[in-house]
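User: Hi! I'm working on a homework problem where we have to compare a predicted structure to a textbook description. Could you give me the structure for the chain below?
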Amino acid sequence: MGFFDSFEKGLERTINRAFSKTFKSELQPIEIAARIKTEIDSRASVISRERILVPNAFEVRLASPDFKRLQALGEPLKVELTELANQHIKKQRFQTLNPVVISLVEDSTLAIGQVTVKASTRAAEVSWVAVLDVAGRRLPLAKGQTSVGRDATAGLQIHDSSLSRQHFEIIWDGKLAGLRDLGSTNGTRLEGQPVVANKVVGLANESVIVAGRSQFVFRIVAKSVKE
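Assistant: Happy to help. Predicted structure tokens:
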């Protein structure tokens, strides 16, 4: 699936096609995605054969009318743009020194439909936060151990009758993560492979976990320290 196909499908899923009705003649979000992709590619710096660095911070400057319309879409738009930038960086085997951060800025000097993207490498004004995405919800994970299951005693309760009361747990220390199946009845799969009960396995960013009838995506996302 191409970059633009991913963008359109992801954004459609997140905001229920809202932009397709709102942005028929003005600047469309897919144009912003294209500009960010171009900045990533054009600013790539070859450090060695295995190490190509790209910027991690992207300031998107928009004309006032476009800025107001895009702001109305809220945080899901920035989340999608950030995740798609990460996917492109991963696909091209690029690396960043810090998590990707995208900000929208109003610029009254721009005409409607115009957009500029300024890329930079930003030192860590961000912290890394672990989340589980499931059924359209983003659930934050606290440091330590968080159990997931159908029962109210689980750290994260998921309404799925095929889950055990406490099905699996995520172990997160702020930098590294692990997954442990808690002896569940129906088992847990990580990237399609069964997880041995009560054994901790490493959990990478964007890992897909299947338990019961539910699919979870483990993500490490950037959160501004100022927030």
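For your comparison, note the following. The two ends are 34 Å apart (CA to CA). Helices lie at 3-15, 18-22, 29-42, 64-71, 75-91. Good luck with the assignment!
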